[in-house]
Specification:
The complex is a heterodimer of chains A (499) and B (345). Chain A has helices at 18-21, 124-133, 146-156, 174-181, 183-197, 211-223, 248-256, 276-288, 318-324, 365-372, 384-388, 395-403, 407-413, 423-427, 434-492, and strands spanning 26-27, 33-37, 47-48, 55-56, 61-64, 73-74, 79-88, 95-103, 160-165, 201-207, 234-239, 271-275, 294-300, 308-313, 334-337, 344-346, 359-363. Chain A has 499 residues and is α/β, with parallel strands linked by helices. Among the domains of chain A are: 18-27 and 117-297, 3-Layer(aba) Sandwich (Rossmann fold); 374-488, Orthogonal Bundle (Fumarate Reductase Iron-sulfur Protein, Chain B, domain 2), CATH 1.10.1060. Chain A starts with 17 loop residues before the first helix and ends in a 7-residue tail after the last helix. Chain B is mostly helical and 345 residues long. The chains are: A alpha/beta (499), B mainly alpha (345). Chains A and B meet through strand 15, strand 16, helix 10, helix 11 and helix 14 of A and helix 1 of B.
Amino acid sequence: MAARPTFPAGLALDAHKQQACGTPIIELSLPPQVTLALDQGSGYSAEPVVTVGDSVAMGTLVARADHPFASALHSPLAGNVVAIESREAAVEGGRNVCIVIENDGSGRIDDRVRPVATALSLSPEELVHRLRDAGIAGLGGAGFPTATKLNSARASGAQTLVLNGAECEPWICCDDAVMRSAADDVVRGALLLQRAAGAGRCLIAIEDDKPAAIAAVAGAIERQRDAAQRDDALTLAVISAVYPQGAERQLITAVAGIEVPSGSLPAAAGVICQNVATAVAVARWAAYGEPILSRVVTVTGSGVEHPCNVRAPIGTPLSALIAAAGGYRSTPLRLIAGGSMTGRALPSDDVGLTKAMNCVLVATPDDVGSRLGAVEMPCIRCGDCANVCPAGLLPQQLHRAALADAHDAMHELGMRDCIDCGLCDYVCPSQIPLAARFRDARRRLNAAEATAQKAAHARERHELRTRRLQEAATAEQQAFESVRNRARQPDDDPAGGNR
Amino acid sequence: MRFDTSPAPHVIAGYTVPRVMFQVLFALVPAGIAHVALFGPGLLLQLSVASVTALLAEAAALRWRGRDAAPALRDGSVLVTAFLLAFSIPPLLPWWLGALGTALAVLLGKHVFGGLGQNPFNPAMVGYAILLVSFPAEMTRWPMPLDVDGTHTWPELARMSFAGFYGADLTARWDGYTGATALDAIRNGLGMRYTLPELLGRGDIAGTFGARGFAWINLAALAGGLYLMTRRIVRWHIPLAVLGGLLVPSFIAHGLDSGIALGPTMQAFSGATMLSAFFIATDPVSAATSDRGRLWYGAGIGLIAWIIRTWGGYPDGFAFAVLLMNLAVPFIDRYTVPRIYGRRP
């Protein structure tokens, strides 16, 4: 199958995928303890519904998703809640409140974990609701709750579901492994997601450097033609391998030819994106009633003995994942949650696996050495950054605006349109840490906006208060006047002269 | 186990500014060989004095500015300035003029604006323009290229180059071997009401293609420029636009009146055309930012150079064309911001 043309710009990078992809997925047994961060990667925390000392079974709800951007959390093992406290976690900021559960070895399963025999005949609303309760969230790296996305698709009548199997970032290959080993689940999940979203068609996008996954998914589509309501409901879209094609907007442009308007959600352009692993999680939920209790994660890098893909319970300490990959090797320098381009370097391996974590990259100086000796030089405006930017930005101009902290210029030049892919940084001959500068700048923009909003609220409150006080004063004045007038009236009354 | 944390991306491609700069120097080698073969070793003398002066001026400027000089001296950018200036000036120029031009290029062209990456003008062209307006006679006296006639030899060119370099009076002994460049001769000839075919038929102006002598240097510079394009150090927008801006009007004018207007081949292969299109106008620091902006920028340089060559007071117009378009860069940038993904045009 010929690869389709892709979105403009981007770059083909060294994939480093063969290391972990050669062997079948390792099923990790239940660890003695799991650490469940309330924020599973989306940046929003769930609300705990258990307390220390509670006994929970496998699949028991332990934290409820009150915020639409948080996802419900379930215990992946049977045991006791031993702590609910702030701990180091693989989330933005590095710390999060975590629910720590100790395995009691009983293997009890919660009563509510039951196969959903009739999943495909549930109403779309009910389906979305149940997926939300099952804590289904984007397993591609963002951890965004699937139900919230499906709702936005329904609200705007999106007709296209793009299933993201691009997996463009170097080192990561868990989606590849999932597609090869569970292609039928990918397609089953896709059909359910399509129904829940109310989308007429579904495009499964895979980059052409994964021929085995393409063949597996193509076969699964063929096998499930009958389940699809229309012949063209499910299509395989093979795209050439370019980073950052797996980024939501870039992928939508590559496979559907649609550009998502700046500042709005893809659903507004009639498309939503879901990860292939998320589709598998949906299929597992339908088959076993299983909320998200585990995920497949790539454990790789020159710093582990045997790079591999592991299916591990959510909350498993990363040290256990690394042990499953044969343990540390040589001198690991950096522990990265994610790939080499956008992954977050973690200070410690004593944090729990999250739903959003698709890769644990144990990098040695060999893997990340190019960055180590980098000496920042002045920008020579060569424009290499602009040539690779998938968002069509001018990073060299943005950098000037960011250094000057010029907010208007940053807005105009599209600081918020930056998708943080890191390519500008990657190609910069002056080795300027552009991506990090831009993240800082966006934080400052957000902070300034929050301050401005607070100030606006304060002003509004002040104005309302002033008006209220004024009204009260006026009312008092009027009351006084009317009383005085009434008191005076006899005086003024020409007839009332007999004092 | 604890680990080092630093922000993503964790890898970079490993391109560096010195790599860019030394590739540019390397790409000048063919043009340099042609230059030395046709005009004698004067270029090498000019290159040495310009390089030494440039490094000294850069070090001094950084010292005055309280910066660390070592990385800047190693990045090669100041050598590119020196080389471009040395290629632009006549090989017979007294050494102190080359040194003066280079020092002015580095100090007034670069460091008064804040050094690498901050200069609005092409530093080499700043130095060249100051020399040209201050020493017009010296700056337009070139040796006759070797392929003009058999009256002089390369050793004689060498002796003349050294004499000129040390500041000897060239009129006494070498007058017959020096002269105006082809473009200068054509401009003077047209001023004296000769027709173009007459001038080109004279034998000392036109070669088998383009201007005698300079045609080969231009061809070699074109080869070096194409090499830079294959190495992705120079992209096609500026060179193509410069050549388009120069050649399209000359093609039209030549079609209208071939008696006075130089044709595109002659324009392309004379003076500093290829050096300017591929090496000088492409200096990214002083060029426009976006691809579309670079097309306008390059086309403006080509057009202004054509205007100066056709009607101006100087035989070649690229230095002024580049400086004028440097001035226009903020304006061009303002109106050629590329469309951001997901935004309306």
